[in-house]
Amino acid sequence: MAVSASIPDVSVSKSRLDRLRSTAEAAGASAVIVTPGSDLHYLLGVGGSSFERLTALVVPSDAGLGPAFVSPALEFAGLGHLPLADLGVEVRTWVDGEDPYALALAGLSLDGAVAISDMTPSLHAIRLRDKGARDQVLAGPILRELRMRKDPAELEQLRLAGAAIDRVHAQVGQWLQPGRTEAQVGAQIAEAIVGEGHAVVQFVIVASGPNAASPHHSVSDRVIERGDLVVVDIGGSMLSGYNSDSTRTYAAGLPPVAEVTDAYAALQQAQQSAVDAARPGVTCEAVDEAARGVLREAGLAEYFIHRTGHGIGLDVHEEPYIIAGNDLPLEAGMAFSIEPGVYVPGTWGARIEDIVAVTAEGALRLNTRPHELLVL
Ligand code: ZN
Ligand code: ZN
Ligand code: ZN
Q1: DSSP 86-146
Q2: What percent of the chain is modeled with pLDDT above 70?
Q3: Domain 3-146 matches domain 152-375 at the CATH topology level
Q4: Which residue(s) pair with 349 in the sheet?
Q5: Among 85, 147, 181, 308, fewest CB within 10 Å belongs to which?
Q6: pLDDT interval class at 6 (50, 70, 90)
């Protein structure tokens, strides 16, 4: 378990823990159990992921019981800087041979379901069940109520992440040339993602020619050909834990044929139209439809094979999802991608992706590189 550099202020952590408790109570859960991952990062500033030894924050919904932090003693040695005492969190360490699951559930009244963080390994969830937490629900719906609306400090971290990935896109032209492989270009992009201020490279997609029709292609040994469209979708995590994610589509060496240029113009209009639609009170599905409708008009509906976007924060993909069927109204502070694409199987593809933050006035782009097809 690594410790992140950005521990939220004690007062911020305190109010997040209080809101978690009251939201859990309103949801009828008896407690929320959060293991290492983005939820724990959000609450306490602790990074890292779950291992086979249980580390967990237990937040009872009964205000009379305080939260507890269960940690293997060998891990807790590196967590001494956490202001757990100031937060009113009781520390319960354990050593190999002891039962951490009984320790986690000690003192809880288990009459309501226990909400368990979404990414908790079943290794821990099932053992908690065996120790008495029989009725379990996902904690995601409770935590999304907290994490979906970013506070100004979080929006600032997303803005810095967006600016860092924009600086990488600004350099892509130096590396992306016909005759080079996707993997060679991708390696230089990965280096620049760190060079421009990210702590971790999350993903590098360099999808050229027919590979561009596969939205989640990574990189391959395919040699980029003159005239290829190349989808470059890249992102990383800053030291703060907040993520970037931005796509631009480049033309290698030659402008594409008119049919592709026309489709790209519709894609650009679709992306703009979704950005224009996003404002407080508008539903997620309406933003999706704003992009999809433009592509439908252009006869391209069948080539847009994914949702329009996803929330972003401490996870690259989180709530809210900009997708048909999601009638959640947008609120100020929500941050998500707007990334329509056109994918013609086996032939070519294109995508344009910006992260936006919802403000009272509308959606503010956190990625500002030009949206036009850039001929390199
Ligand atoms: Zn994706
Ligand atoms: Zn992306
Ligand atoms: Zn994305």
Answers
A1: TTTPEEEEE-BTB-HHHHHHTT---SSEEEE-TT--HHHHHHHHHTT--SEEESHHHHHHH
A2: 98
A3: no
A4: 343
A5: 85
A6: low
How does DSSP assign 268-296, residue by residue? HHHHHHHHHH--TT-BHHHHHHHHHHHHH
What's the 356 CA to ligand 3 centre distance in angstroms?
11
Distance CA 254, CA 252 (A): 6
Cα 71 to ligand 1 centre (Å) = 34
pLDDT exceeds cutoff 60 at 168: yes
Amino acid in position 125: A
Determine whether 317 is exposed, middle or buried from the number of CB atoms within 10 Å of its CB (0-12, 13-18, 19+). Answer: middle
**How far, in Å, is the centroid of ligand 2 from the Cα of 245?**
5
The domain limits of the chain are: 3-146, 152-375
Residue 33 CA to residue 35 CA, distance in Å, equals: 7
CATH homologous superfamily for the domain 152-375:
Creatinase/methionine aminopeptidase superfamily (3.90.230.10)
> In angstroms, rounded to a whole number, what is the distance separating the alpha carbons of residues 181 and 161?
27
Question: Against a cut of 0.85, is the pTM above it?
Answer: yes
Q: How far does residue 337's CA lie from ligand 3's centre (Å)?
A: 6
Q: Are 57 and 40 within 8 A, CB to CB?
A: yes
Dihedral sign from CA coordinates of 145, 49, 338, 301:
negative
What fold, for 3-146?
Creatine Amidinohydrolase; Chain A, domain 1 (3.40.350)
Which ligand lies nearest to the CA atom of residue 351 in the structure?
2
Strand, coil or helix: 187: helix
> Are the C-beta atoms of residues 301 and 295 closer than 8 Å to each other?
yes
Stretch 77-83: mean pLDDT, rounded?
88
Cα–Cα distance for residue pair 286/270, rounded to 1 Å: 13
CA 73 to ligand 3 center in whole angstroms: 38
Interior/surface letters 58-74, b for 16+ CB within 10 angstroms, e for the rest: bbbbeeebbbbbbbbee
Q: Which residues are in the CB-under-5-Å shell of ion ligand 3?
A: 245, 337
Report how far ligand 2's centroid is from the alpha carbon of 244 (Å): 8
Using pLDDT thresholds of 50, 70 and 90, give the confidence band for residue 49. confident
